[in-house]
Amino acid sequence: MNDSYISDIPSIHSEIVRKSEEIGFTMPSDLYIGTLLKTLMASKPKGSFLELGTGIGLSLAWMVDGMGEESRLTTVDNDPELIEIAKHYFGNDNRLDIVCEDGAKWIKAHKNLEFDLIFADAWPGKYSEIDEVLRMVKIGGFYIIDDMRAQPNWPEGHENHVNRLVDYLEKRDDFNLTKMNWSTGLIIAVRTK
To answer: What confidence score (pLDDT) does residue 28 get?
Structure first.
């Protein structure tokens, strides 16, 4: 098996990569995360989804590609420039709600919502507001986080945050957890109760 051959890359992906390079965006998601998200999204054909950390929209491209026609996806980021880029590429898709807001504030204001899949790719939802976000995952739903392996752009001491988060997730009894030393390092958790 050659897992480096990925044949179903979203058609918009290369344009978003080009735009990332143009504006100097240095935190794009990789292809492996994207293909996994697309597959998991397809498992919930009428799903409700949340992405925390839109970035420039690379993960969003994969998620949109995997969504069913009756699905809904909310993506949240606090960077107005990046949100405008995401709106440029995805603003005409009526299944999407692209939100420019501080993630922690958005989570606190919407903590009663439930989602079939949450991809937490920002500080809020991964290192802060974790309890609120985990309560937002439906039973049988996915909580996905990446960048669990050391990254070149990590600030000093960031590994301590990662270790505390992993330890916290491992101790919970309401999620089944799979840690994957693959791609940038993933945790896939499914809520069981």
So the answer is: 61
